[in-house]
UniProtKB/TrEMBL annotation:
Pfam families: Nitroreductase. It comes from Agreia pratensis. Residues 24-157 form the Nitroreductase domain. Gene3D superfamilies: NADH Oxidase. This is Nitroreductase family protein.
Length: 199
C-alpha cells in the first residue's frame, strides 16, 4: 500500500499502487470561493487539454459552452441544473456545458461520441487540478432546457456540466448535510473487483 498525503484540500486517499499525484489529489468539491474569478490562463489550458484528447477516428465529437460567474450564460446554466446542483454551483468561478456530437453531418450516428466526450472532460479535469483549480462534473442537468437556452443544434446533446473554481471550506456550504457530504471519505471498489482477468 502506498499512502499519499491527505490534506483538507486534496483529500487524497490510499492507493493500492502509486499513481500520479494529480490523479490521487483530484476530488469533486461543492464548496467554491465566490470571491475568486477564474484564472484565464488556467481555463485556456483546461480547454486546450480537452482539444488534445483522443477520439474515435479523430472525430473530436465534443463542443463546450464556457461561462464565467457573473455572465448571463452562467445564470442560464445554473437555472438548467437539477435540485441540489442549483444550490452550490453559483459560487463556482466557471461552468462548462459539455456537448456530444451524436450524429455526423450526414445524420449517421456517432456511437463513440459519449465515450469521447467523457475522455475529453477527464483530460480537462486533470489539467484543471494541475492548474490548482478544483472541478466537479454533473449529470444532474436539464439537457432540453440547455438546448433551448443556447439554441443547441439537434445533432449535439448536453451530457454534463463541469463546475470549476477555487475551493472553499466545507463549512461555507452552510447546511449540515452538505458539510458532512463534503467531508465524507472518498471510496472506491477494490482493484481486484474491477480487473476481471489479469493473467
Ligand atoms: C458523469 C458524472 C456525473 C456526476 N453528476 C453529479 C451531479 O449531478 N451532482 C453532483 O453533486 N455530483 C455529480 N458527480 C460527482 C460524483 O458524485 C463524484 O465524482 C463521485 O462521487 C466520486 O467522487 P470524487 O470525484 O470526489 O472522487 C458526477 C460525476 C460524474 C463523473
Amino acid at each position: 500500500m502506498t499512502l499519499t498525503t491527505t490534506t483538507a484540500v486534496t483529500r487524497a486517499d490510499e492507493t493500492s499502487a502509486p499513481i500520479l499525484e494529480v490523479l490521487a489529489a483530484r476530488w469533486s468539491p461543492r464548496s467554491y470561493d465566490p470571491t475568486v474569478a477564474i484564472d484565464e490562463q488556467a481555463l485556456a489550458s483546461v480547454l486546450e487539454a480537452g482539444r488534445w484528447s483522443p477520439s474515435a477516428a479523430n472525430t473530436q465529437p465534443w463542443r463546450f459552452i464556457v461561462a464565467r460567474r457573473g455572465s448571463e450564460a452562467f445564470d442560464k446554466i445554473v437555472s438548467n441544473l437539477m435540485g441540489f446542483n442549483q444550490a452550490w454551483t453559483p459560487n463556482a468561478a466557471a461552468l462548462i456545458v459539455n456537448l456530444a456530437e451524436t450524429t455526423d453531418p450526414d445524420g449517421k450516428p456517432r456511437p463513440m461520441a459519449s465515450y469521447d466526450l467523457g475522455q475529453a472532460v477527464a483530460h480537462m479535469s486533470v489539467q484543471a487540478h494541475h492548474e490548482g483549480l478544483h472541478v466537479h462534473q454533473m449529470s444532474g442537468i436539464i439537457a432540453e432546457g440547455l438546448r433551448d437556452a443556447f439554441s443547441i443544434p439537434e445533432n449535439f446533446t448536453a451530457l454534463t456540466v463541469t463546475a470549476l473554481g477555487t475551493i472553499d471550506s466545507p463549512e461555507a456550504l452552510g447546511e449540515e448535510g452538505a458539510i458532512a457530504r463534503e467531508k465524507a471519505p472518498r471510496e472506491r471498489f477494490p482493484l481486484d473487483e474491477l480487473v476481471l482477468v489479469n493473467e
